[in-house]
Amino acid sequence: MSKPRFRKVKQGKVDTSYKQKVKVSDNSDNAIKIPTKKDFFKAFITDTFMLLMPIMYIVFYLVMGSREGFAEHKLEGWILILIPYYIIVIIFLAKASQTPGMRAYNLVLVDSTTYKKPSLIQIIFREFFTFFDFILFGWILMFFRKDHKMPHELLSGTMLIVKEEKE
Questions:
Q1: H or E segment to which residue 69 belongs
Q2: Where does 48-159 have alpha helices with state H?
Q3: Of 66, 69, 91, 160, which alpha carbon lies 20 to 30 A from 149's?
Q4: 86 near 131, Cβ under 8 Å?
């Protein structure tokens, strides 16, 4: 949807309700709430310690034998760490649209057009490009956008939102 011309909006000829769809503010009841960078970072750290650290421990000490064994075969070690990590994250996102870190901070992964659960293809695509985002510093884009989207979210058509709590 293209942005309407200012003159038509000023004259009242154009419906401006498109702006109500996604809001950063917490005041509106019907707006979709975008998580803060702080919540996203806390969820990422939680996932790192809950999911990645046990896999790293298993690879370091059970598969490679020791840290020295891991140091000798770093590429193999990181492949053995990252592939299971991404498989686990994809399973969590496919089942509940949340990882444990996202659940702790009420964040949900949704399709950015329908605001419903994303398809498995979108989730796999998102996680594939997440790896390259962090290597190539694509995550810096989140500091320049109001909706805090990163390149992997833009490419996959997904976004994180704050889950509505039912009272």
A1: helix 67-72
A2: 53-57, 67-72, 74-96, 100-104, 120-135, 151-156
A3: 91
A4: yes
